Amino acid sequence: MFELTLSRNHLLNPLLAVAGAVDKKQSLAILSNILLYWANDQLRLTATDLEMEITARIDCASHGSSAKITVPAKKFIDIMRSLDEDATPTISSKAGTVIISCGRSQFKLATLPAEDFPSSDNDVSDIELTVARQDLIHLLQSTHFAMSQHDVRIFLNGLLLELDSQVITAVATDGHRMAVCRLPCDAVDSHQRFLLPRKSVQEMLRLLNSIEDEHIAISAGKGHFKLDSREFSFQSRLIEARFPPYAKAIPKQQDKFVLVDRDLLKRALSRIMILAHEKSRAVILHMQSGTFTLIANNQEQEEATETLEAHTDGNEIKIGINASYLLDVLNYFDEGLVRLSMSAMDSSILVESLQDEQYQYIIMPMKL
């Protein structure tokens, strides 16, 4: 017998937090359910798609001993959303059904046996450390947009977290651009690399932005990566592939530089892209002594140019890039000066913010 009464608002946010792990493909019926497990005055909500698992914890009192039930995720969430904000529903189970009672409303949902819900493996972790939540958000937020989506090279469809000495590095690339962010962290005994799937990275970011805990515990080992806080636990399988030696792709012999205001460049690029080729989004960056010009044209022979105020250093150069890649990183950067470092028209561009020395963004050139 399961019976629990708590406020709708107390339950809804944790429900939405775990919903991202519910199996959308419905390959197994039980995976479209959320497990509710109550024990020791704490309710745990768990969802999984077998690749990723999210558990949220809520402190609350319940009638009776410990118990567990499953509820159909979408219907249960929709019911909770439909209730008044100050509602206090009672959730109980009886003979294979879950009953939600609130005032004059009552909902009866079919359920599946809690015993059929997959249990997570207690894998042995090779590393354990604690990081500030905002630092982890910064690592993921600054790099995740460079991940590929459906590349046959599966290592591109994820994000690399590398731990070495007292530095944690996040790297993502789709083969055309690469984002690298480094932050100091607790000392680790050995060099470790973990390749996280794209969906897991997106869910981690969503969770980290929805909670208030200041610190997050990270543990990881062969095949798994886990985050723990007071409010939730997150576990993901890893991509079993070798990430390329990314450090070799970071340009080091640049001799041409542009310093330009981030907002100025972002607005100009957005305007110029209106007449860029629809598929390639190609824009030419033309650096001359004291001037920096953006040029775009398309198959209709239309053209747009804009010259910006900028500080330049080095010989004249023209280099073509996908403007969307540059705009992505400008959207991430804070206000202030941006430095573009170049060497030749067929060499990659290094993009950096003077406000963040730990971040590097590399864009491969396009043929003019």
From TrEMBL:
Pfam families to which the protein is assigned, alphabetical: DNA_pol3_beta, DNA_pol3_beta_2, DNA_pol3_beta_3
DNA polymerase III beta sliding clamp N-terminal domain ranges (all copies): 3-119
DNA polymerase III beta sliding clamp central domain segment(s): 131-244
Locations listed in the record: Cytoplasm
Keyword match Cytoplasm: yes
One Gene Ontology term from the biological process aspect of the record: DNA strand elongation involved in DNA replication
InterPro entries hit by this protein: DNA_clamp_sf (IPR046938), DNA_polIII_beta (IPR001001), DNA_polIII_beta_C (IPR022635), DNA_polIII_beta_cen (IPR022637), DNA_polIII_beta_N (IPR022634)
GO MF annotations in UniProt: 3'-5' exonuclease activity; DNA binding; DNA-directed DNA polymerase activity
Major site of localization recorded for this protein: cytoplasm
Record key words, sorted: Cytoplasm, DNA replication, DNA-binding, DNA-directed DNA polymerase, Nucleotidyltransferase, Transferase
GO cellular component: cytoplasm; DNA polymerase III complex
Keyword Thylakoid on entry: no
The DNA polymerase III beta sliding clamp C-terminal domain, residue ranges: 248-366
Free-text function comment from the UniProt entry: Confers DNA tethering and processivity to DNA polymerases and other proteins. Acts as a clamp, forming a ring around DNA (a reaction catalyzed by the clamp-loading complex) which diffuses in an ATP-independent manner freely and bidirectionally along dsDNA. Initially characterized for its ability to contact the catalytic subunit of DNA polymerase III (Pol III), a complex, multichain enzyme responsible for most of the replicative synthesis in bacteria; Pol III exhibits 3'-5' exonuclease proofreading activity.
Record family assignment: Belongs to the beta sliding clamp family.
Complex and partners: Forms a ring-shaped head-to-tail homodimer around DNA.
Listed name of the protein: Beta sliding clamp
Organism the protein comes from: Legionella jordanis
Native organism taxonomy: Bacteria, Pseudomonadati, Pseudomonadota, Gammaproteobacteria, Legionellales
Gene (UniProt): dnaN
